[in-house]
Amino acid sequence: NSFSSTLTKLTINVNSFDDCLYLFNGCLKSLSTLISRIKKITRSLSEIDNTKKLLKLKHFSLAIDFYTSCYDTEVVPLLRRMLNLEELTLFLSVVRSKSTYIDGNQLYDKVLNYMSQLNKFIFNIHTRIMNDFIINNNIKIDLPSNDDIRNSFIKRGFKSIDTCADDKLINNRGNCHVYSLPYQFNEFLFMNSCFQGGKFDKVRLLTMFDIRPFEHELFKIISQDFPFLQQLHICNNHRQINEHHHSSTLITFNYLFKLHLYAVHKDYVIQFLSDKNTRLPCLTNLIIEYKTLVAVTNNFTNDATRLNCSKIKYLVTYEPFVRSQNFVAYFPSL
To answer: Where are the alpha helices (DSSP H) in the chain?
Structure first.
């Protein structure tokens, strides 16, 4: 129809990679800008040709919500079709089991080398190595250092970048974040404890995951470097080690209104709900296990956690419970 034949710019959220491929199947003949967000990228089940060149496309943005193990088999072939691309934005979390982190050398050799017109590249690429399920455990993965990763981008002409990466596997796992500067995204997903800091004024949502503890000092750095953070999701069931640091420095998240602490060690609940550790003046949404909430608040009598709970309007526990008198008094805004 006339709409599809004249449309030049499209911003769209889709569920699957196949949905994205359909957009390049010839129906949008004039499309020059596509800003796409995909919920999850898995192996394509369609018969769409993912090799036909997309010569009219000038600007492409791809963001995904979850990890994908199909970066090399699905994403890279799609990007190689964009020979005349001038601007590229990537926000990706990639799982690998037999190869190392995505760095500047890999990006150039597999993708950017095919885009001779590219003049703007904005990215946040997270690689997670998971080789604990490999049958042949003799496979050795050499992880590059932060300097190695940084230099791999610099030598390709990308000087304004930063990285935080594990330089060795821990329990057969390693993580690397590499991103262009200044940081342009409103999310930072799957941060781990190797994070060293930076400037993230645009970030409103942060998710954190690790098999090592998140210490008080890390949350202090986050409160300073993510000054406008609104939502925080923590996934970590390992207890904190440096508990004695809690009372020394009070942390404040001035704009944080949603806190996800479900299935975490109770140390992180104490870290955030105790006003001796953290101040949360805008906290209205809390997601937490009920039994942990009962334990940390001492059955809703602990004065140290009362203030940060006083403005909560939405409490999610994923389990039924009976509201006691103490509970009602503890959460007056519910």
So the answer is: 2-6, 17-23, 76-80, 104-110, 146-154, 216-225, 266-273, 290-296, 306-309, 325-330
